[in-house]
Amino acid sequence: MKITGKVHLFGDDIDTDAIIPGAYLKTTDEYELASHCMAGIDENFPERVEDGDFLVAGENFGCGSSREQAPIAIKYCGIKAIIVESFARIFYRNCINLGVFPIECKGISKHVKDGDLIELDLEEKKVILKDTVLDCNLPTGTAKDIMDEGGLINYAKKQKN
Known about the structure:
Elements: E1 2-9, H1 16-19, H2 30-34, H3 45-48, E2 53-57, H4 69-77, E3 79-84, H5 89-98, E4 101-104, H6 108-111, E5 117-121, E6 126-128, E7 133-135, H7 141-148, H8 152-160
Parallel strand pairs: 1-2, 2-3, 3-4
Antiparallel strand pairs: 1-5, 5-6, 6-7
């Protein structure tokens, strides 16, 4: 399967407090959280996102606290996949558990600009840019199975039946 989306580019070491600052954690409403997505860096980010866009960043994305609200805010903001150089481990696992597509792709942040259209080929595990094709790492094994079900809760329900 191939998906095309617009790039929203961020740098290295984007922590969970930048993704969804603590002041906005007073709600469990996913869409309210999404309305403050990336507020620690760019208050207007949710207004620019169109359903199916990609969040692209550098190294160590999602570092900081283990708050699950960070990937929830990204997902409900309309981001189809998070494509980064590397993830903080807890954030990566939270993405899997919540059905947010985490993709590691070395060199991605150096090959794109904010607003670029890129294509993600999930079967070939590649990101296709205007003049470059980059290999990427997608969830495999049980993590892929969880993603295929839309997250850990759906996966567990299916396993129970």
